[in-house]
Write a structure and sequence with these properties.
This protein is an alpha/beta fold. It has one domain: Rossmann fold, CATH 3.40.50. It has nine helices and six strands, in the order ααβαβαβαβααβααβ. Strands 2-1-3-4-6-5 form a six-stranded mixed beta sheet, with helices on both faces. β1, α3 and β2 form a beta-alpha-beta unit. α2 packs across α9. The radius of gyration is 17 Å and the shape is globular. The protein starts with a helix and ends with a strand.
C-alpha cells in the first residue's frame, strides 16, 4: 500500500479519529443542513470517517467515491455497495459534496474539480478542505503524496478556474500552526505520516478549542488548513 493508503487504513479505527477531523465534518454537516440537503457525497472518501460521523445524523444519507481499490473495498464492506456513487450518476441539489484533503494529492487539481463540476446540477454545493500555506510544505507532505499546499486565494482560484462560484474561503486551525511549523523543521518519517493518536481528554479539549476557532474562521489570517464552499457557476 502507499503511505496514504496506510494512513487511511489506520484511520479506520474509531480511536484514531481526532478533533481536527470532527471539526471539518461538523462544517460539512452544517452546510448540508443549510442547503436542506439529504445526502452527503464523500469524494476521495479514504477511510470513511465522514460516513461514521454521519451515522449520528439520521437526516443525512452517506455516499462515497474512492479511487483506491483497497479503500473502496473497505468502504463497500462497511457502508454497503449501494453507498458507492456510480460513475454515471449526477449530483443533484439534494446533495452536498465533500472533498476533504483530497485535491492536494492530485497533480492537475483544476481538471479534477472541473470533472466533478460537470456532474453537478446548478445549486449543488461543494465543501473543499486542503492543507494550507505553501511555506509549511515539508517531508510530511511529500510522504503523503501532496503536490502543494493552498492559500485562500489559490484555493479560490483553482475552484474558479474549474467553473465554480466560491461563496467563502477561510483558514482553519490557527491554534495548530506551531505544531506544523515544528514538523517542517524536524521532519517526518514514513511510519509517522499522521499526527499521534490522542487521548479522549485531549480530543475533547481540542474539539472545543478548534470548534470555537472555526466559528471565527472568517477573521483568521492563517491556519494549517483552508476550507472553501462553492457551487457550479451559473
Amino acid at each position: 500500500m502507499t503511505p496514504l493508503e496506510q494512513q487511511q487504513t489506520r484511520l479506520i479505527e474509531p480511536a484514531a479519529h481526532t478533533f481536527w477531523h470532527r471539526v471539518r465534518f461538523d462544517i460539512v454537516v452544517a452546510q448540508a443542513h443549510d442547503a436542506k440537503a439529504d445526502t452527503v457525497l464523500d469524494i476521495g472518501a479514504g477511510s470513511g470517517m465522514l460516513g461514521d460521523h454521519l451515522q449520528t445524523d439520521d437526516s443525512l444519507e452517506y455516499r462515497f467515491d474512492e479511487s483506491s481499490p483497497v479503500l473502496d473495498g473497505h468502504l463497500a464492506q462497511h457502508f454497503g455497495g449501494t453507498a458507492r456513487f456510480g460513475p454515471d450518476e449526477r449530483v443533484g441539489t439534494d446533495t452536498v459534496c465533500a472533498m476533504l484533503d483530497v485535491i492536494e494529492h492530485i497533480e492537475d487539481d483544476v481538471s479534477a474539480l472541473t470533472a466533478w463540476r460537470e456532474r453537478m446540477d446548478p445549486g449543488a454545493r461543494l465543501v473543499v478542505t486542503a492543507p494550507a500555506i505553501q511555506w509549511l510544505f515539508s517531508s510530511w507532505d511529500t510522504e503523503l503524496g501532496h503536490f502543494r499546499r493552498y492559500s485562500r486565494p489559490s484555493l479560490r482560484a483553482a475552484l474558479t478556474a474549474a467553473g465554480f462560484q466560491v461563496h467563502r474561503s477561510d483558514y482553519l486551525f490557527p491554534e495548530l500552526l506551531p505544531i506544523v511549523v515544528k514538523r517542517k523543521f524536524v521532519g517526518a518519517h514514513s511510519d509517522d505520516v499522521d499526527m499521534p493518536q490522542l487521548s479522549h481528554r485531549v480530543n475533547r479539549l481540542g474539539h472545543r478549542v478548534s470548534t470555537a476557532s472555526a466559528r471565527c474562521r472568517r477573521f483568521w489570517p492563517a491556519g494549517t488548513s483552508v476550507v472553501a464552499v462553492a457551487e457550479p457557476a451559473r
